[in-house]
Structure formats: structure tokens, C-alpha cells
Write a structure and sequence with these properties.
By secondary structure, chain A is an alpha+beta fold. Chain A has two domains: about 80 residues, Ubiquitin-like (UB roll) (Roll), CATH 3.10.20; about 70 residues, Orthogonal Bundle (DNA polymerase, domain 1). Chain A has five helices and five strands. In chain A, helix 2 packs across helix 5. Chain A starts with a strand and ends in a 6-residue tail after the last helix. Chain C is of the alpha+beta class and about 280 residues long. The chains are: A alpha+beta (about 160), B alpha+beta (about 800), C alpha+beta (about 280).
Chain lengths: ~160, ~800, ~280
């Protein structure tokens, strides 16, 4: 067991964990933060994407011990006092989700994309989201939602 | 007579479902945790076919944290055989299907043993301590050779790999063929697909030992059907089982199933008296969740020189996989009536042989039988046009049912109520700029451009709204096709809609709210929709086959009509007027001629709750249920056009533009309809270009993870240009037709037709799906049909 | 799926890491970005007894100049390689190719050194480092040694690193005045390349003075295409380049798998070599 201290969505947690514990299982099974789901074994689907110290990572491919001393933001940490972020609103307004399983990862990946490219082209949006699979939408409305946010003057994704 | 103001129906309402999904406040089955929850893990066969000589779980049991471990034999009696509800022919061979294999494993992935442990990590480790001795047996791995003499038998006790033969015929095909100027014969291959809903399956069972009842949560499309069949399979009384489908992360048919894992988790929770969870990993899902398609299609068309179709003959070999699951035998038969599609002809013969192979069972995948049918007819229509030197659109126009001919009974015996193929096609051609693209295509041929343009046409229809119960009975399907809805107007005027459909992404909560809001004249925001729980919504037939809106949504409308009828009696009493003298509009009853005398439906609901002054003999409720059994199917249609650029140096096919004009009848929520089409088209394109479940020579799935099974990502798909025509269905009061599968059905042939169209100048007649760059390159090299059977890679 | 249990060590210096590896022998695995290792462990295709996580060794990260070479710390992430101004200026081929590796989230974790040490012939970066005449610096109990890229990739998933050695930095000669291109051919955006071709071209007086061609996924290791390189020398027009590119697959033995046959891979190598060289030479 290894001792870790991780700040997740603003709260600091101290835990003893097995080194092999994946960050996604730490979030889901230990902290009960089930907003971030798991979709594959090979880091292809991106459903488990969270932010680790401000950049998007696939939490199925990071060990919980590696997050020791770090800050993690999940989809559950985005809205404050019921106030959705611009991306969350855009996903809703553009019908960028159907079953919603890929949505947490897709939103976290889109945040990352907009940080790096605040005003992307449609093609850049598609490539920026290439690590996140969606089986419902055909991606078109997801691309629209991200572009909507990028067109807003100040990016507060 | 209800007079509703169409305030909600037709509006692009953002969905009520989204709020919890975009904030992570989800309730996927794997999110569920209760005190004392144990985790179940399943050891699966690494071989396609083997005798099980020994299963020893004792070492697993010795590991700390392991509560129980069982072989198939340990639990066979309690688990029964998994059900098949659709034995399509009288003599269908239905093998025994134990949820955990007992004597033999019959596909790589067949469960062999289970362990139950305190957490998922301990359970995963314990699997490695289970010892199994196998004697490998020869396997049947190919549909086309499964019936050949000497091929290994999947079920040796049955003496054959033939599951069934099914035939139907209408008109005299041989006579039609004799009269034909042209007879075209093709063999198309529907590759095996893995449905790949983003949420892997999960089951949680919480038992209450004292009363002997169980709640089973499952990522299922069919909580109601599942409840019935769990009871039948396990012997646990139906009224002791509650099934809940919480948030379900996509299905596409793959969760229209009664899975062994559901039975295993229920039976072991009962045996152990402890809550149990099983969640599959993606690599487990790829072998354990049923697959789709996997057919060999022989199709022959007889036509006159001017393009007039005379007859069609279809003969299928349909892969069942190793066992019959819930609907396995029926999937190809669901397509039987769709081969003649939108075309008039005088003769049609259909036959299908189901065959067992040592691979993961096949069952419904988005479209289920109808995409296969549409692919074959739309591919051969393009081939026939090429053969006759006609434009493929002109050939279709020459043969399709004209809009003034509806209702029209096809040679397959279905009566299409409405449609306008001309309108949809004309609109699509204009959006696509068809003539300009044809000119560019010719130009590239003239200049021997290394990048060629191909244009693919698909004018599809489908049968939606599965299904009239009587028809299902004739087809030997065990259940009915009705759907239930009930509506409660609460004392405070808020409305609860309880639906028997079980959405998993389709937006029923929003659409049903729109339907109910209009029918009752109440605000959209005042409607709550409950679903997916046999305790809250006890009456239902669930969600599959583009049935939900056409049956379940219409049932909501009809239940609302009953509510209004009941409320009218109360309102008439309160207003001291005759029922016949009341108008109902915008949620209020008013007396004809004196509009100030009015009662809103909310007021009527409260008056009914108080019940102080109701008409004599009236029961104090305006709530109502409606169970709708449709008389017929609905028939959405549309025209999809695809332009593909094929790089003749590498063989890569790139979709340059994609236009679809769909006619799904009246539209409840255009944003949801568009979304359904986008996603459907994406899955159809995936079949055309990317996806295939590949097995090696030993019968192991090679495409076992998402690193090998190529689900397209955002950069791999084009921007779709979509539009609609609206020809209302005449078979239901909302005029709706359904949309869940349309995109998938339409797009696959449009894309493959485009790829082949680009390659025709090189003598290429077909490319087997998925049209990989290598297959295109091989076809270009040999300058002949890619369907000659020679495959460079499996 | 769930990785098997292992001991975990998180050294804070290279020396400490090397000591740990030396003590553990064959049963230890270095955890760099983890983007290949952790999936392999989850699928239970790798069972290390000890995982030495080198993510908290600051000296392994960053890019600096050393005379005519760039020195890139082994644990520099793909994301940082792409963004680094020195890499963009002096090793454009590396920056451009790295931006095609996997996807943005994976590039935040995955590292240059990890990709090279994994020695996957389907990885994009080994062929690039090979074509740039890179050198790999390893540290072991007996000190540091520098391994030329052409000696580093030994076999499928096998590098020249000894079990007790840690890859610490990658030295890349500055490629001033060379045109470059990486042509990656894959079936979907996030899939591994069926074949990739890295080209570096130096032009002189309208002709190709020198061309280097590296091949991804054309054998059990990344390869150079010497016959094509030789034939390209002096090529002055697209036809000559196309002709020379016909030699690209000479001597290769590409594998057969679900995505391609050997003969198709050989064909792709020729087509992609032509395209990469034309683009690198500004003739495309």
C-alpha cells in the first residue's frame, strides 16, 4: 500500500492504495466519483478522460499513485452552484450527446482542445477529439458544440 | 375530438435527459454500490471449441477475499438454458445453452467458471487461479463451409450445423427470369460486426433474503422482456423480480438480449444471499456481447433491357454463431420482406439457411436484417444500372412506387401506407449537386487522375414499428409487439407519463413530454416521464426496432386522449354543460359560445382528487393507460448520396460529401431526429469502410480490443448534409414513422456503391466490406471483381 | 481490465532508478508515460514484479542545445516535444511526426523516451530518430553510454537497453536546411500506422543532394531504405523521385496482420516514400 494525497474537484483526499490501482478506479470505487466512466482497456475510447494538473489524461492509463500530490478535475467538478460551463451548455443546446456515456470524457477533451487552440477550425476540432469515441452522434453535433464555444469571445470552457 | 395546438410537437427542444449526463450525475449500472456488494468475474474459454475435462476452482477459493467460485456443472441446474424467443421455422434446431458451459465450450469467450470476491481486483486475480483442462475439438469457423461434409459440428448432438431453412415466394420467379433480357447474379458478404455500445454491460443484483425478492439492475434495452424471461429461465417467480434499466449507455441491439451474465448474477446473488455486481471490460465485451450481421447473400435480379425489374431471388446463409440467443434466428428473416424495397416487380423468392459456427452468437445490431437487405438490393441496383448503361438514379426512378400509387402492397406482401420517393430524391440530388459531381467524375477519368471520384446512391425504405402482435405470431416470435403508456395528472396539475419503452440515448423523456404536453395542453416542463423500471413502469415491451415512437409514443398520445375524455366528463359536470358542448384547447375545457365558462385540466385534476362533486358513478380518476398494438408497420424512406474520393495509389477511400434526405413522417423533435440520423449514418459508414470482427484460423477473435476493432473517430467521418421531406404515416394519429435505424440502413450501400462507382473504369465490380485500402488496391491490381473470393488478409 | 499486482518504486534521481533496476534484474519494468505499458498490464500481457516509475525525476525532462545537437530528456512528453521551440526549429520532422502520435490526451502522458524504449516497429518515432541519425543515451550501473539509433532497435519490442539501463536522453543532430515529411498511412485516425515513411531531404541546385528515408512498420524494427536513398541522390524532378521510390521496400520483410499483407505494405512503402520525398523536397 502506498500513501497518496490527491485533490479531486477541490477536495483533498488522503488514502492508502495498492500501486496497481488505476486512477479511474480510485475515483469511482474509492471516492465514489462515478461521473467519469470506463469504456475500454486500451486507452482508445477516452470515456475516462479527466484533467490531471490542468491537462487532459486518460484516467484508465494513469496509476492512482502517480496522481499523488496532484490536482484532478472531473466532469463533476465543472459546474459550480448549478452554473454550467460554456461547453456543458453547448453540448446540451447542440444535442451533442445521446446516451451520454462518452460525454464526460468528450467534454474534458474539448476543454483541453480549447485551451490549446482557442479558435480551432472544424478539422482541428475533429483531430483534437480523435482520442474520444462516440457511438451515438456521428460527432457532428459535438463538433458544432465545441465550435460554438470557441466563437464566444472569452473562452471559459 | 381533441383539438390540440401544436406548440411542442415539431420543436427542436434541447433534451431534458442532458442535465445529469453533462454533469456526471449519472446512474450507470456500474455506478451502483450497496453495502456488502460483492464482485463477480467470469473465466472464459480461450478456445473456439473444446471438451471441458476438468474445472478446479479450489485454488481460487483459497485466495483471501474470495467468497465463492463455481464451475458450470456446479450451477447448471439452477440456471436453466438461455432462451431463444424466435425459432423461425417449425424444425429450427435449438441447442441447449447453459449460461456457464458444462461439457463443451463452443466459442472463444464462452463462460467456463465464475468467482465472487470482495472487490473487482481480487476477483480478477482469482480467475487466474481457476484450473481448467480442455481437449481441443475441431471448430466450424466459416459460414460458407459450415454445412459441408466433414466440417466439425458445433453441437454434435444435433448432427448438423444447419439451424433452419426458411422459404417464401410470391409470383413465379423462374418465369420472370425466362422473360428477362438481363439476369444479374451477385454474392455479397455482410461481415461480422461488434456493436460496441460505449457503455460495457453491467449487472447488479440486490437480494432481499427475508422475502425472497430481487432487484436486478442491468444495462439492458429490455427490462420488461428480461423480467419475464429471467423468471422463466431461473424459476424465480416473476413477481419476485424487479428489473431496472438505469442510465444505459447505448445499445444498438446489443442490449436487446437475455444474457447469461444476467442469469448468473441473479442466481448467484440468490445462492449467496449477497448483493453482486458484474461489469464487463471492453475486451470481454468484444467476445461476450453478441455480434451482428455475418451473412452471405446470393442475390439475382431479372430485368428488361429498359431497366424494368421483373423479379428478384435472394438466398442467404446466415451465421448464428455458437448458440441461439434471444432473436438470433429471426434477424435475417426480419429482412426477408425488405429486399424488394421500394421497387415494383412481379416475382420474389427468398430463402435463408441459418448455420452454426464456433463464434460469438449473432443477434440484433442496429437495423437487424434490414440493413443487410437494403445493402444487397441497393448494391445490385447500382450494378444493374452499370450493366444496362443507365444512370443509377434513373433506374430507380423507373422502378420505384410512385407517390400516387400509395398505399401499395409490395411483392413481399407488405402494404406501404405512404411515401414520396420522387420528392426526397429530387431534394437530395439538388443538395448534392449531382450533375456537377458526375461531370467532375468524368473529368477525372479523362485525365487519368490518380484520385477518382465515385458517387453512390441509396434509396431505402425500412419497416419500422416492430410490430403487430399478430404478425409476430405468424412469424413464430414468442411475444407481442404492443406498447403501453399511462398518464397521471397529479392533484397539483403536474403530469407523470409512464412509458413501457426503455430509452438509452434516444431522448424519449423529451419527445414523450412534447407529445403529452400538446395532447393535454400542459407546459412541457410540467411533464415527467418514467421508464425502465418494472416497478415504476410495470407494463412495457421495451426499445428496439425503431418501435418506440411509432408504438410507445403514439400510446402516450392515445393515453392522453383517454385522460382528456375522462376529464371532459368531469369538466362538463362542473360547468353544468353537455360534454358535446365543450371545446378542449390549450389545456382547458370551455363551453361553446361562452368561452369564459372554462375549467383547465389542472383544475379538473384537483376536482377529481378532492372528488367532492363528480358525476354519479364515475370513478375518481382521470388517469389513463393505453396499450397500443399496431395494425401495421411504418415505412420511413429516404435518399442518401455519397461522394467518395478513392486514391488509386494507396486504395484509400475518403468520403468527400454525404447528403441525406429522409422522410420519417411527422417529426416530434427535429433536433433528435437529426441526431439519430447522424449516428445511424456513422454506424453504416463504419460497416462500409472500417469495422470487422476478424477471427484467426483457430477461432480466436483478433479484433478483441478497440485498438484492433476500428470504430471511427471524429476525423474519420464527414460532415453530413441532412434534410427532410415529410409524408405523414397514415397508420397512426401522429403521422410518425420512426427513425432509430434509418441512417444505418441507408448509408452502408451508399458508401460502397460510391467506392465501386469510382473503380468501375478499372473493371472492378465489387469490394468486400469493409472496403479497406488494401482490398481496394487488390481489386485495382486484379482489375476485376473483388468478390472473386480471393482475400489477401482474413 | 485490471493490472496484476506489482511492487512500485518512484525514484527521484537517475542514479536511484538505475540502482533499483540493477537490484531487480529482469523482473522490473520502467514506467515512463505508461501509455503502452499500462494497457499491456491491464490486458495481462505484461507482468512486471517491480515497476520503477521515472516520472518524478526532473533531470529526465526538457530540451536543450548542445552544439550541433538537440538533447531531449527521455521523459519529455510528446506534448512538450511538439510545443518546444528548439525542436520546432532544429528537428521539425520530430515535431511534425510527434503530433501524429496517438491523441492529445495520450500525448500529455506519453514520452519520447518511452516510445523509443518500447521499440515498437509500428510506433512513429523510432523511424524518425533513425532517419535523423539520432543517438540514445543510456545510463546503467557502469555509467553512461551512447547508442546510435541504428543500433538501438534490436528486434520486435526489443531495444539495446540492458535490463539495468535507463534511457536518459535522446540526441538529435540539428537538421538545418533539410526539408522533411512524415507520411503516415492508417485506417482510422487513432489507429497504428500500417506503414509510415519519414523523409529528410537536402536540396542543392534544384536537385536532391541527399535524401534519408525511414520506414515505420516495415519489419520487426524501424528501418532505413538505403536503396531508395541512393537512388534519390541527384533526382531533379518528380518522375525521378517516383522512380527512385520504387526501391523503398527493397530488403524489407514486413509482417502480415489484420490490417495489411506484406505485399501491400511494400507497395505502400513505395507510394509513401514518393510522397514524403516530394513533399520534403518541395516538389510535391
Amino acid at each position: 500500500m502506498t500513501h497518496i494525497s490527491v485533490k479531486v474537484d477541490g477536495t483533498t483526499y488522503e488514502d492508502e492504495v495498492e500501486p496497481r490501482l488505476l486512477l479511474i478506479h480510485y475515483l469511482r470505487d474509492r471516492l465514489g466519483l462515478t461521473g467519469t466512466p470506463i469504456g475500454c482497456d486500451t486507452s482508445n475510447c477516452g470515456a475516462c478522460t479527466v484533467e490531471l494538473d490542468g491537462t487532459a489524461v486518460k484516467s484508465c492509463t494513469v496509476l492512482a499513485v502517480q496522481a499523488d500530490g496532484s490536482e484532478v478535475t472531473t466532469v463533476q467538478g465543472l459546474a459550480h452552484d448549478g452554473e454550467l460551463t460554456a461547453l456543458q451548455r453547448a453540448f446540451h443546446e447542440r444535442h451533442a450527446l445521446q446516451c451520454g456515456y462518452c460525454t464526460p470524457g468528450m467534454i474534458m477533451a474539448a476543454r483541453d482542445l480549447l485551451r490549446e487552440h482557442p479558435h480551432p477550425t472544424p478539422d482541428e476540432v475533429r483531430h483534437g477529439l480523435e482520442g474520444n469515441l462516440c457511438r451515438c452522434t456521428g460527432y457532428q453535433n459535438i463538433v458544432r458544440a465545441v465550435l460554438d464555444v470557441s466563437e464566444e469571445e472569452e473562452v471559459t470552457a | 375530438m381533441i383539438e390540440t395546438v401544436a406548440r411542442e410537437v415539431g420543436r427542436a427542444r434541447p433534451r431534458k435527459e442532458d442535465a445529469h449526463l453533462i454533469t456526471g450525475q449519472t446512474n450507470w449500472t456500474d455506478n451502483i454500490s450497496v453495502n456488502g456488494l460483492l464482485h463477480l468475474a467470469i473465466l472464459r474459454s480461450p478456445m473456439a471449441h473444446a471438451r471441458i475435462d476438468r474445472v478446479d476452482v479450489s485454488a481460487a477459493l483459497e485466495r483471501p477475499g474470495v467468497i465463492a467460485a463455481f464451475s458450470g456443472r456446479d450451477v447448471a441446474e439452477a440456471m436453466g438454458s438461455l432462451p431463444c424467443a424466435w425459432p423461425v421455422a417449425e424444425d429450427t434446431v435449438v441447442p441447449d445453452h447453459p449460461p456457464i458451459a458444462v461439457d463443451e465450450v463452443r466459442y472463444a469467450g464462452d463462460p467456463v467458471a465464475v468467482v465472487v470476491a470482495r472487490d473487482r481486483y481480487t476477483a480478477a486475480d482469482a480467475l487466474e487461479a481457476v484450473e481448467v483442462d480442455y481437449t481441443p475439438l475441431p471448430a466450424a469457423l466459416d459460414i460458407e463451409s459450415a454445412l459441408a461434409e466433414g466440417t466439425a459440428l458445433v453441437h454434435s448432438d444435433k448432427g448438423t450445423n444447419r439451424c433452419y431453412d426458411y422459404h417464401s415466394a410470391s409470383g413465379d420467379y423462374e418465369a420472370a427470369k425466362a422473360r428477362a433480357d438481363v439476369v444479374l447474379t451477385r454474392r455479397y458478404h455482410q461481415q461480422r460486426l461488434i456493436p460496441t455500445a460505449m457503455e460495457p454491460r453491467s449487472v447488479v443484483v440486490t437480494p432481499r433474503a427475508a422475502s425472497g425478492d430481487f432487484t436486478l439492475y442491468s444495462s439492458t434495452q429490455i427490462p420488461h422482456v428480461l423480467r419475464v424471461l429471467l423468471a422463466v429461465t431461473t424459476g424465480i417467480p416473476e413477481n419476485k423480480i424487479r428489473v431496472v434499466a438505469p442510465d444505459v449507455g447505448g445499445g444498438f441491439g446489443s442490449k436487446l438480449q437475455v444474457y447469461g451474465e444476467e442469469v448468473i448474477t441473479l442466481v448467484l446473488a440468490k445462492r449467496l444471499g449477497r448483493p453482486l455486481k458484474w461489469t464487463e471490460s471492453r475486451s470481454e465485451a468484444n467476445v461476450a456481447t453478441h455480434h451482428g450481421r455475418s451473412q452471405v447473400q446470393d442475390i439475382e435480379v431479372a430485368a428488361r433491357r429498359d431497366g424494368t425489374l421483373l423479379g428478384l431471388k435472394v438466398s442467404l446463409l446466415a451465421d448464428m454463431g455458437a448458440y441461439l440467443m434471444l432473436l438470433t434466428p429471426g434477424i435475417p428473416i426480419l429482412g426477408a420482406s425488405m429486399y424488394p424495397a421500394i421497387y415494383k416487380m412481379g416475382a420474389y423468392e427468398f430463402s435463408c439457411t441459418g448455420v452454426f459456427t464456433n463464434r460469438t452468437p449473432i443477434d440484433a445490431y442496429r437495423g437487424a436484417g434490414r440493413p443487410e437487405a437494403t445493402f444487397a438490393i441497393e448494391r445490385i441496383m447500382d450494378d444493374l444500372a452499370a450493366e444496362l448503361g443507365m444512370d443509377p438514379v434513373d433506374l430507380r426512378r423507373h422502378n420505384w412506387i410512385r407517390h400516387e400509387e400509395f398505399p401499395y402492397t409490395t411483392i413481399a406482401g407488405l402494404t406501404y401506407d405512404s411515401g414520396n420517393y420522387e420528392a426526397a430524391t429530387d431534394k437530395a440530388l439538388a443538395l448534392f449537386d449531382y450533375d456537377k459531381l458526375r461531370a467532375e467524375q468524368a473529368d477525372r477519368v479523362d485525365h487519368a487522375d490518380t484520385v477518382r471520384l465515385g458517387i453512390g446512391v441509396s434509396t431505402y425504405t425500412e419497416m419500422c414499428g416492430l410490430a403487430p402482435s399478430r404478425w409476430l405470431g405468424e412469424m413464430r416470435y414468442a411475444a407481442g409487439g404492443w406498447e403501453a403508456a399511462s398518464i397521471r395528472v397529479l392533484p397539483t396539475g403536474k403530469v407523470e407519463v409512464v412509458t413501457g419503452t426503455s430509452p438509452h440515448g434516444q431522448g424519449h423523456v423529451t419527445s414523450w413530454s412534447q407529445i403529452a404536453a400538446d395532447a393535454l395542453g400542459v407546459p412541457f416542463e410540467d411533464v415527467e416521464v418514467m421508464h425502465g423500471d418494472t416497478m415504476l413502469a410495470p407494463h412495457g415491451m421495451d426499445t428496439y426496432g425503431s418501435r418506440s415512437l411509432v408504438i410507445g409514443g403514439v400510446a402516450v398520445h392515445e393515453a392522453a386522449r383517454k385522460v382528456v375524455d375522462k376529464a371532459r366528463k368531469v369538466a362538463a359536470h362542473l360547468l353544468e354543460a353537455n360534454e358535446a358542448d365543450l371545446d378542449f384547447a390549450d389545456g382547458a375545457f370551455s363551453v361553446k359560445g361562452s368561452p369564459e365558462a372554462r375549467k383547465t385540466i389542472q383544475e379538473v385534476a384537483f376536482a377529481t382528487f378532492a372528488s367532492h362533486d363528480l358525476p354519479d358513478g364515475m370513478e375518481p380518476s382521470i388517469n389513463a393507460e393505453h396499450v397500443l398494438d399496431p395494425d401495421t408497420f411504418s415505412f420511413p424512406h429516404g435518399t442518401h448520396l455519397c461522394a467518395v474520393e478513392v486514391d488509386t495509389e494507396t486504395g484509400a477511400a475518403h468520403i468527400r460529401s454525404y447528403v441525406c434526405v429522409d422522410d420519417v413522417g411527422k417529426v416530434i423533435n427535429p433536433m433528435i431526429v437529426e441526431g439519430q440520423l447522424h449516428g445511424g449514418i456513422a454506424q453504416g459508414i463504419a460497416q462500409a469502410l472500417y469495422e470487422e470482427a476478424v477471427y484467426d484460423e483457430e477461432g480466436n477473435l483478433v479484433t478483441g480490443t478497440l485498438a484492433d476493432y476500428l470504430v471511427p473517430g471524429a476525423p474519420d467521418l464527414p460532415e453530413f448534409v441532412s434534410d427532410r421531406t415529410e409524408t405523414p404515416a397514415t397508420s397512426n394519429p401522429l403521422g410518425v414513422k420512426g427513425v432509430g435505424e434509418a441512417g444505418t440502413i441507408a448509408s452502408t450501400p451508399a458508401v460502397v456503391n460510391a467506392v465501386v462507382d469510382a473503380l468501375r473504369p478499372f473493371g472492378v465490380q465489387d469490394i468486400r466490406m469493409p472496403c479497406t485500402p488494401e482490398r481496394v488496391w487488390q481489386a485495382l491490381r486484379s482489375g476485376q471483381s473483388g468478390q472473386s473470393g480471393k482475400e489477401a488478409s482474413a | 481490465m485490471i493490472p496484476p499486482a506489482f511492487e512500485y518504486a518512484c525514484p527521484s534521481s537517475v542514479d536511484e532508478a538505475v540502482r533499483m533496476l540493477a537490484d531487480a534484474g529482469e523482473d522490473a519494468k520502467v514506467l515512463a508515460g505508461g501509455q503502452s505499458l499500462l494497457p499491456l498490464m491491464r490486458l495481462r500481457l505484461a507482468f512486471p514484479e517491480l515497476v520503477v516509475d521515472v516520472n518524478r525525476i526532473p533531470e529526465l525532462r526538457g530540451v536543450r542545445e548542445d552544439g550541433d545537437a538537440l538533447v531531449i530528456g527521455a521523459m519529455t512528453t510528446h506534448h512538450d516535444v511538439i510545443a518546444d521551440p528548439l525542436v520546432r526549429r532544429h528537428a521539425g520532422l520530430l515535431a511534425a511526426t510527434t503530433s501524429t502520435v496517438a491523441d492529445p490526451a495520450v500525448r500529455h502522458r506519453g514520452t519520447l523516451g518511452g516510445s523509443l524504449a518500447h521499440a515498437d516497429p509500428a510506433g512513429d518515432l523510432p523511424a524518425v530518430v533513425l532517419v535523423m541519425d539520432g543517438e540514445l543515451v543510456a545510463q546503467g550501473p557502469r555509467g553512461r553510454r551512447t547508442i546510435p539509433a541504428r543500433e538501438f532497435f534490436v528486434d520486435y519490442l526489443q531495444s539495446a537497453l540492458a535490463p539495468d539501463e535507463l534511457l536518459v536522453e535522446v540526441r538529435i543532430p540539428k537538421a538545418e536546411g533539410w526539408g522533411f515529411r512524415y507520411e503516415k498511412f492508417h485506417r482510422v485516425a487513432q489507429a497504428w500506422p500500417i506503414v509510415g515513411v519519414a523523409a529528410l531531404v537536402r536540396r542543392d541546385d534544384g536537385h536532391i543532394a541527399e535524401a534519408r528515408v525511414g520506414l515505420t512498420n516495415m519489419g520487426t524494427t524501424p528501418l532505413r531504405a538505403p536503396a531508395a536513398e541512393e537512388a534519390l541522390s541527384g533526382a531533379g524532378d518528380p518522375d525521378a523521385v517516383a522512380q527512385a521510390a520504387q526501391e523503398a521496400a527493397q530488403g524489407t520483410r514486413p509482417s502480415q496482420d489484420t490490417s495489411a499483407s506484406p505485399e501491400y505494405r511494400a507497395h505502400l512503402a513505395r507510394v509513401l516514400t514518393k510522397r514524403a520525398v516530394l513533399a520534403a523536397a518541395g516538389m510535391g
